[in-house]
Design goal:
CATH topology of the largest domain: ph1033 like fold
CATH class of the largest domain: Alpha Beta
Shape: elongated
Number of helices: 8
Strand content: 15-25%
Largest sheet: 5 strands, antiparallel
Structural class: alpha+beta
Helix content: 25-40%
Number of strands: 11
Length: about 260
């Protein structure tokens, strides 16, 4: 179902509630669809302006029902829409969190589904839905293993550091994509490949390490995905940051070579 910003003014607050277990069912417009039933699995997709992609999933807890239109101007004219109540298990905030990129849905079997429809309540074919669950689970797992130094944001030109509870590089998926396209998904330190060892669920999973130190970076700079980034597995990434001045990839390779 498509995400409409005007439908969800408190999205960041709702996302925080879900993270801490306060996931009350939300009302979601399903256009004119009357087919959605309790227990159906749903995915929410953001189209239009970038970033585009899937950002939420959940299950329907109330069949589709007719109610006052979500658009206040249409509601004033007496128009209605159909809605469902959805219990979300995952909710990411587009523009703040990394979402599952729309371009990952261009290859078979995902390409068999028309993802760019402007209608809500569109059914995903069963065989596509099964593969989507695998991809979505893998994507969420990759987020759960993220470190502050990973780069996963939309614009390559970015503000280098932002102040949260720790100093964190702005996340950049385009920079990540270019890095992986160049170096592949094998760890630059130990050579581990998640797809070779875990099969489909490990496909395309890898951390991306930023080689530059905070002290070497000005307030704003342009990331060079080939020069500045390297793919590393979560274990090696954690070891790189075992000391305040991170180990280099070459130093870590030396540690492995001594075993």
């Amino acid at each position: 179902m498509e995400y409409k910003r005007s439908q969800w003014d408190n999205l960041p607050e709702t996302a925080e509630d879900i993270k801490v277990g306060k996931n009350e069912p939300i009302r979601w417009s399903c256009g004119r669809s009357k087919k959605l039933k309790r227990g159906d699995r749903v995915f929410l997709i953001k189209l239009g302006e970038k970033p585009k992609g899937i950002f939420a999933s959940g299950s329907i807890v109330r069949d589709s029902y007719e109610d006052t239109h979500w658009d206040s101007s249409k509601a004033q004219m007496g128009e209605t829409s159909f809605f469902v109540k959805v219990h979300l298990d995952t909710l990411l905030v587009p523009g703040i969190d990394q979402i599952l990129p729309r371009e990952l849905l261009n290859d078979p079997p995902f390409s068999d589904m028309h993802w760019d429809t402007q209608m809500s309540g569109i059914q995903i074919p069963d065989y596509v839905a099964s593969e989507l669950e695998i991809l979505w689970t893998s994507f969420k797992n990759s987020l759960s293993f993220s470190l502050p130094e990973e780069v996963e944001q939309e614009e390559i030109f970015e503000r280098a550091v932002r102040r949260v509870t720790v100093n964190a590089y702005e996340r950049n998926p385009e920079a990540r994509r270019q890095c992986i396209n160049h170096y592949g998904t094998q760890c630059s330190v130990c050579g581990f490949d998640f797809a070779e060892n875990y099969g489909e669920i490990g496909k395309d999973f890898i951390h991306v390490h930023h080689l530059k130190q905070l002290s070497e970076i000005a307030d704003s700079y342009q990331v060079n995905p080939i020069k500045d980034l390297r793919p590393v597995c979560p274990n090696c990434h954690a070891m790189i940051h075992k000391r305040k001045h991170p180990y280099t990839i070459e130093e870590l390779k030396t540690f492995l070579g001594n075993k």
